[in-house]
Design a protein that fits this description.
- By secondary structure, the protein is α+β, with helices and mostly antiparallel strands.
- The protein folds into two domains: 3-92, K homology (KH) domain (GMP Synthetase, Chain A, domain 3, 2-Layer Sandwich), CATH 3.30.300; 99-160, R3H-like domain (Ribosomal Protein S8, Chain: A, domain 1), CATH 3.30.1370.50.
- The protein contains four helices and six strands.
- The protein has helices at 3-20, 55-76, 94-116, 127-137; strands spanning 26-31, 46-51, 87-91, 120-121, 143-148, 155-160.
């Protein structure tokens, strides 16, 4: 991926969307953004940050529109699957809040699995968010994570390390 060229393509693409949709939004595209302590698990080559009066529209319903714009950008740049993480869209610090939320969910799930001895099924989520859960749980020696399901239904399941038995049980 040519970062500068991609940044210019992104700029033209987003400029058109923001203007044509009449959105009151500003955005900033950063090439090779500095990695802060909260970005230790995400190292995008291009970071797009939105702000402005309409920011709340991007963040409604679990940041659905923000995620959709990110997916459209990935399609537009024709990035192969293994390069999707090179682009990150954020708005008003949403990414950090979501990261904290996923890390907390991982801790709660770990306690629950230890307590019940049963697998815990997380809600379906993007490959990027599944990766964050796997990373958040990788140091739990007595537990293991796996991804299950197909496509948009794909989710992380947390097991006791030596769990044997049917994994067909449905999400709680």
């Amino acid at each position: 991926m040519n970062k500068i060229e991609s940044a210019n393509q992104l700029n033209a693409f987003l400029g058109g969307i923001v203007k044509n949709a009449g959105l009151k939004l500003k955005y900033r595209i950063t090439v090779d953004p500095p990695i802060g302590e909260d970005r230790d698990w995400e190292r995008p080559d291009l970071l797009v940050e939105f702000a402005g009066p309409d920011a709340s529209l991007l963040l409604g319903r679990g940041a659905e529109l923000l995620r959709s714009l990110e997916l459209l950008a990935i399609e537009m740049l024709r990035l192969p699957g293994n390069e999707h993480e090179k682009i990150s869209f954020d708005c008003m610090g949403h990414r950090k809040a979501r990261l904290d939320e996923l890390r907390l969910a991982a801790r709660v799930a770990a306690d629950k699995v230890r307590e019940t001895g049963m697998p815990y099924h997380f809600a379906p989520m993007s490959s990027r968010e599944r990766r964050i859960l796997h990373l958040a749980l990788r140091d739990e020696q007595d537990l293991r994570t796996e991804s299950a399901g197909e496509g948009l239904r794909r989710s992380v399941v947390l097991y006791p390390r030596d769990f044997k038995g049917s994994t067909a049980s449905h999400a709680h």
